[in-house]
């Protein structure tokens, strides 16, 4: 067993002769492009059918909360699975597991198209969450496997930006699919996307891991213990989950606010989601570009700006009630959230380079569990159905972020 002096993580590596196709200079560029293409899968799987929520509620003869629960099923299974898949792919490799996961994901998507049972829908969403965990965690670890130094930091900082393309494009595209073909078309597109990526991965990609770790429970437990005992890493995951929760409470409420309160079409919901996702994307780019000040200073300043925006949104709601007013504040609040998310995501993902798979899994999986918890708690306390209640939801999450950042202000490594 080896201890990494820089990160403190424990490893138990073995070098193996990998018989499957590997990443070399000849296919590294194409494999990198494919890895980036799969990073948005988790967002695509949650966001593409958001404009279809009201139609799905009618089709399955159930209420809005039951359809919203399909998102929770995905988030919970995706989050829990990521806590464990990192150690699996660190021990058995990324490539073959990725190929199998793509096929299972495609199959579950097509199964959803033909079901009329809400419980089958829940089950398939759990399956999709688990398979997406294997795919996305493996692809995030790919960049740590293949690249080093500044190039590694550059690519990992791009991950949250590339991921943000799903919230930008998926609901927008899904709105048109819903209007033209119905809710089933969203899952047909998901299934076809997974099949196309399977073929491209089979042709152009390969195994990226060079050093596998023994799959010994005790060794794996020690790795998890070391990572989770680092306060900056663990509480950074909490901030990531809360930040993503800000996006999710809008995404899950927007179809009903737009289509019920403002009486607009699913296409309008798609446009709103497009603006929301674009703001996250821009925020991620800004977060990547900001270099001045310590990480703690940048995070606390961003959080303070977010609190001011939320306060203005709440107090002005009684004066202005319109979709343009709502979306102006949603865009600004989500943009700042994108900055916070990008800064902490890069920090957590590169914190333990010798345990890239486990760190990637815990980072994303833990954040999704936090997101699932806080969103379920918020929707359990009150119904977010208009501008005022959305502002209250934003405020609760922003104050939670403030508390964590104040605790971490002197504990971050840089």
Describe this structure in words.
The chain is an all-alpha fold and 414 residues long. The protein has a single domain, classed as MFS general substrate transporter like domains (Growth Hormone, Chain: A, Up-down Bundle), CATH 1.20.1250.20. It is 77% helix and 2% strand. It contains 16 helices and 4 strands. A two-stranded antiparallel ribbon has the order 1-2. It has a two-stranded antiparallel ribbon with strand order 3-4. A hairpin with a 6-residue loop joins strand 1 and strand 2. The longest helix has 31 residues, at 231-261. Residues 1-19 have low confidence and may be disordered. It is a multi-pass membrane protein. Keywords: Membrane, Transmembrane, Transmembrane helix, Transport. Residues 31-414 form the Major facilitator superfamily (MFS) profile domain.
Structure summary:
This protein has helices spanning 28-38, 41-47, 53-59, 64-92, 95-113, 118-146, 149-163, 165-181, 184-204, 217-228, 231-261, 266-289, 295-316, 323-349, 356-381, 387-408; strands at 2-3, 10-11, 13-15, 211-213. By secondary structure, the protein is an all-alpha fold.
CATH architecture annotation: Up-down Bundle
Which segments are poorly predicted (pLDDT under 50) over 5 or more consecutive residues?
A: 1-19
Terminal-residue CA separation = 28 Å
Gross morphology: globular
User: Radius of gyration over alpha carbons?
Assistant: 21 Å
Work out the strand percent: under 5%
Following the backbone from N to C, one meets helices and strands in this order, namely EEEHHHHHHHHHEHHHHHHH
- E-strand count: 4
CATH class: Mainly Alpha
Helix share of residues? over 70%
The average pLDDT is 83
User: How many domains comprise the coordinates?
Assistant: 1
Number of helices: 16
- The CATH homologous superfamily is termed MFS general substrate transporter like domains
Largest sheet: 2 strands, antiparallel
| CATH topology (level 3) name | Growth Hormone, Chain: A
Going across the major beta sheet, what is the strand order? 1-2
> Given the helix and strand composition, which structural class is it?
mainly alpha
């Amino acid at each position: 067993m080896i201890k990494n002096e820089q990160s403190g993580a424990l490893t138990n590596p073995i070098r193996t002769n990998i018989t499957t196709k590997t990443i070399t200079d000849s296919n590294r560029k194409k494999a990198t492009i494919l890895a980036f293409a799969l990073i948005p899968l988790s967002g695509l799987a949650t966001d593409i059918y958001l404009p279809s929520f009201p139609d799905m509620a009618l089709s399955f003869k159930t209420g809005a909360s039951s359809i919203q629960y399909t998102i929770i099923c995905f988030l919970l299974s995706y989050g829990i699975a990521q806590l464990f898949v990192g150690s699996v792919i660190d021990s058995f490799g990324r490539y073959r597991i990725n190929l199998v996961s793509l096929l299972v994901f495609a199959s579950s998507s097509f199964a959803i198209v033909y079901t009329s049972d809400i419980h089958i829908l829940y089950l398939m969403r759990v399956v999709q969450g688990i398979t997406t965990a294997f795919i996305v965690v493996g692809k995030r670890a790919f960049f740590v496997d293949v690249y080093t130094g500044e190039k590694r930091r550059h690519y990992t900082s791009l991950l949250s930006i590339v991921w943000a393309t799903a919230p930008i494009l998926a609901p927008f595209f899904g709105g048109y699919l819903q209007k033209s073909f119905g809710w089933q078309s969203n899952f047909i597109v998901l299934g076809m996307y997974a099949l196309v990526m399977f073929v491209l991965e089979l042709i152009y990609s390969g195994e990226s891991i060079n050093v596998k770790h023994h799959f010994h429970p005790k060794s794996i437990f020690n790795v998890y213990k070391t990572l989770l005992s680092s306060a900056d890493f663990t509480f950074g995951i909490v901030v990531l989950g809360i930040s993503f929760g800000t996006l999710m409470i809008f995404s899950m409420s927007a179809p009903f606010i737009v289509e019920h309160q403002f009486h607009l079409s699913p296409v309008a919901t798609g446009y709103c989601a497009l603006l929301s996702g674009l703001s996250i994307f821009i925020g991620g780019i800004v977060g990547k570009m900001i270099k001045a000040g310590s990480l703690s200073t940048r995070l606390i300043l961003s959080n303070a700006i977010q609190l001011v925006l939320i306060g203005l949104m709440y107090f002005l709601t009684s004066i202005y009630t319109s979709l343009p007013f709502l979306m102006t504040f949603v865009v600004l609040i989500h943009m700042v959230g994108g900055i916070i998310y990008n800064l902490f995501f890069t920090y957590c993902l590169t914190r333990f380079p010798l345990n890239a798979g486990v760190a990637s899994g815990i980072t994303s999986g833990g954040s999704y569990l936090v997101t699932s918890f806080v969103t379920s708690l918020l929707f359990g306390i009150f119904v977010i159905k208009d501008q005022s209640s959305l502002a209250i939801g934003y405020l609760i999450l922003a104050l939670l972020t403030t508390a964590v950042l104040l605790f971490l202000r002197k504990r971050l490594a840089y």
